[in-house]
């Protein structure tokens, strides 16, 4: 039985939808900025259409990226870096937790209303259920991590240090830039959804530019863009 396309009822081509979603998620642009950029390319769509495309197809693209990358993620069990930042939703403080591997790949993003032991435990269980148990876990000195790791029997794998967790802290920077462009979030569910999609897209296009020669960087960038253009093509 032939699988029906998710785009069969849309008059706009899949290439344009992919481009609009990539511009909005990858770069610190507003919906109206994306509308203007598409207009310069001769594509006439409203910013509300871009919003609809992102909500409907963003998670789908992110899911396919994760499926394609899962085969090469065995090394993600070597060492994890965990960190949390606060994000305001309608003036109320929430916490965005991240698990990052030793290469800077964002493995998991999780939003909670608190950062106590219960929240840390829920975050850790979710990450380990998807990616397995790492050999080492680097955190800051937040007591919630120690209590949660002790409960799941992984306290001996914890490492703490002044600069050891810089990789996790640096992983927040692209999200912070994106957050400012979006003028913050209004619902916890929207934050969770965007953080997960943004992490997958950032992983896909992150080429560690400072560590590569110019020819290698150009080749990797072209390969990432070609793979993006092939998402959900079947």
What does this entry look like structurally?
The chain is built from 9 helices and 5 strands. It is an alpha/beta fold and 234 residues long. A 5-stranded mixed sheet has the order 3-2-1-4-5, sandwiched between helices. Helix 2 crosses helix 3 (47-69), helix 3 crosses helix 8 and helix 4 (117-131) packs across helix 5 (143-151).
Briefly characterize the structure:
The chain is α/β, with parallel strands linked by helices and 234 residues long. It is built from nine helices and five strands, in the order αααβββαβαβαααα.
Q: Whole-number radius of gyration? A: 19 Å
Total discrete domains = 2
Total beta strand runs = 5
Number of helices: 9
Can you give keywords for this protein?
single chain, 234 residues, alpha/beta, Nucleotidyltransferase, domain 5, 2 domains, five-stranded mixed β-sheet, 51% helix
């Amino acid at each position: 039985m032939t699988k029906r396309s998710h785009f069969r009822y849309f008059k706009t081509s899949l290439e344009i939808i992919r481009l609009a979603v990539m511009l909005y998620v990858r770069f610190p642009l507003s919906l109206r900025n994306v509308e203007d950029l598409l207009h310069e390319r001769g594509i006439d769509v409203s910013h509300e259409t871009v919003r609809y495309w992102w909500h409907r197809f963003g998670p789908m693209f992110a899911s396919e990226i994760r499926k394609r990358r899962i085969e090469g993620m065995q090394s993600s069990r070597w060492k994890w870096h965990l960190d949390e930042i606060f994000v305001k939703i309608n003036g109320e403080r929430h916490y965005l937790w991240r698990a990052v591997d030793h290469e800077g790949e964002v493995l998991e993003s999780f939003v909670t209303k608190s950062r106590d032991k219960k929240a840390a435990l829920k975050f850790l269980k979710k990450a380990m259920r998807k990616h397995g148990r790492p050999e080492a876990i680097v955190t800051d000195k937040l007591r919630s991590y120690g209590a949660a790791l002790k409960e799941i029997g992984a306290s001996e794998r914890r490492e703490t240090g002044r600069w050891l967790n810089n990789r996790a802290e640096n992983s927040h920077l692209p999200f912070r830039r994106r957050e400012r462009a979006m003028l913050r979030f209004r619902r916890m569910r929207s934050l969770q959804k965007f953080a997960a999609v943004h992490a997958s897209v950032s992983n896909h296009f992150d080429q560690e530019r400072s560590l590569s020669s110019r020819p290698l960087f150009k080749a990797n960038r072209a390969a990432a863009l070609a793979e993006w253009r092939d998402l959900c093509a079947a």
